[in-house]
Amino acid sequence: MLYGQQKFKLNDSIPDFKLWLLDDKIITKENTKNKVVVFKFWFTSCTPCISDIPQLNSLVKEFDKRDDILFIAPALDSKPVIEKFPFNFRIAYNSIDVSAVFNQKQVYPSYFIIDKKGKFSYIDNGNKISEFKELRKAVIKALK
Predict the structure, then answer these.
(1) pLDDT digits (tens, 9 = 90+) for 88-112
(2) Positive or negative CA dihedral for 140, 135, 28, 9?
(3) Architecture of the domain made up of 2-143
(4) Is residue 122 very low, low, confident or very high in pLDDT (cuts 50, 70, 90)?
(5) What helix, strand, coil percent values describe the chain, rounded to 5?
């Protein structure tokens, strides 16, 4: 499913990236191979970005027994600012450079699902067309 105008199209390979997580681990294109990756690009003063956290947390909980899916939330904010958010995604901080590549329109929140082959299977870059149920359906489809 594709919502909005973006440099990337469905089935395009994802670009190289490097994200620093709150737990001091690093996520890259290489260490996400053979996993479905759900990205949510956001920042802390974006009201829509914050308001969907409870629904997204329930999505993480639904798939928490699986080891073939990662939920990653690259934030534009610094580590001290985002540490307090009750978000069950793995949060990356200071992600402005990666956001600029994935989310060229810089519209937030934006969602991307990467399939196990490292290709875009869902893109919603802030057009508000997508609903949570569509995101969930796209996750299920990518896991098949």
Answers:
(1) 999 999 999 999 888 888 889 999 9
(2) positive
(3) 3-Layer(aba) Sandwich (3.40)
(4) very high
(5) 30, 25, 45
Its pTM stands at: 0.91
Tokens coding 102: 């994935």
Question: Where are the domains positioned within the chain?
Answer: 2-143
Rounded to an integer, the average pLDDT of 21-27 is 96
Amino acid at 129: I
Angle, CA of 3, 79 and 55, to the nearest 5°: 40
pLDDT of residue 107: 85
Angle between helices 132-143 and 53-62 in degrees, nearest 10: 20
Please tell me whether residue 142 adopts helix, strand or coil conformation.
helix
* Element spanning 88, H or E: none
Tell me the C-alpha distance between 122 and 2, whole Å: 6
| Residue 5 scores a pLDDT above 70 | no
Q: How many helices, marked H, and strands, marked E, lie in the chain?
A: 5, 8
Radius of gyration of the chain (CA): 14
